[in-house]
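Ticket #4471: structure output looks truncated?

Reporter: J.K.
Steps to reproduce: submitted the chain below (431 residues) through the standard prediction queue, then opened the result file.
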Amino acid sequence: MKLRRAAIRPFRLPLTRPLETAHGRISERMGWLVELEDEAGRCGFGEATPLPDFGTEDLASCRGALEAAPSACIRGDAEDGPPVPVERVDRRKAFPGTGVPCARFAFEAAQFDLAAKCAGRSLAGEIRDRAGEKGAPEASVAVQALVGGEDPASVEERARELTAVGFEAFKLKLAVSRNARDLGLDLERVSALRSVVGPEARLRLDANEAWNRDAAATALIALEKFGIDYVEQPVGREDLVGLKWLSTNGAIPVAADEALLGDGLANCLEARAASILIVKPAAIGGVSDSIAIWRRAREQGLRVVWSSLIDGAVGRAAPLALAAGLGPADEVHGLGTAGLFAKDLAAASDLGRLDRRGRMPVSPEPGIGFEPEIPVVTPRRGSHVKSHAGQGGARSGERSSQPLVDRAGADGEIAGSDARHDQTPVFEVVA
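Returned output as attached by the reporter:
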């Protein structure tokens, strides 16, 4: 199997309502759909949807990396050389360094999707085989809902909607106030959520680096009465000492999330800073790297929860397949985010729908199991993330100050005109 064409297309996916986090407000997700086509006309798809305030590259850097990679992967070292067999494509050569994880993830996810389609098996089956595991992947995966709402009333409203859909596990973002970190308000919000979902539902919280160690310890004690499964990233990603202290002494288990990005991954695992790892393949930088983390976690007896960067349907397909292919089968994963989107990259109305047990079915069809579609949305100016600068969210130097310059339209906007929704690539390399 040899690659003959690579293309990227921009998209913008508005959320049904803004999502508040300690890093800032997210009202839409923007990125690039990656398409790799082999000589037989089969196509593999990947999605690059950066989230700079979380610690990934920005849109401009992501696009630059995606445009630079295909030529080397399709033609090899020779500019006019023959197509390169897909199994010989060196992803690390195409994307040197660790600075563009979303671009690396998208390209490799497209490779995995294409390989699975060539083999006639699901993406979960392809991942399970690559990991050297025997047997079939799980047919469904238990997932949690991400609950929004800045105040108790809005949390209650959203929780009722999600409970009616069939969710049995829920995650709430903490420290979302744009004015100040307010533990009292967070306690009211968590209480509201627990009152709606009942005492048996699994409840998780995400602080997104909002606290220092002392504030986190105080918060965990106050939150303990609500029966919390764990709190994600209560302290800054560099504070592995604080994270480990909380993991050992905190009133509630804590999980590493942002701490796993870039060079932090090796340091976090070496320090055993947390016994729970929230693994986002798009933030880690690829499917292969995610499999490697899963192996290391299994060796060390660590708990792995697969999650996404609030990605579109194509981006969610890989972590869902990892959860189905590698498990653990009894874990609840952070993949119930389809309902956040007003528009998505899939036309299938049942994509992301749950069964009666709060589980998400995994497609048995080859590859990701659906044909992506870029939706038509109303043009809109402005950033997809409004940062809470100076309020303990993402750190300086990690937010992009560069506008995206689209060489196809030079208007600084991604998916910024209806003309771009005709599925025509803005960048394409053909062997």
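Triage note (M.O.): checked the attachment and the full token line is present. DSSP finds twelve helices and 14 strands in the chain.
Status: closed, working as intended.
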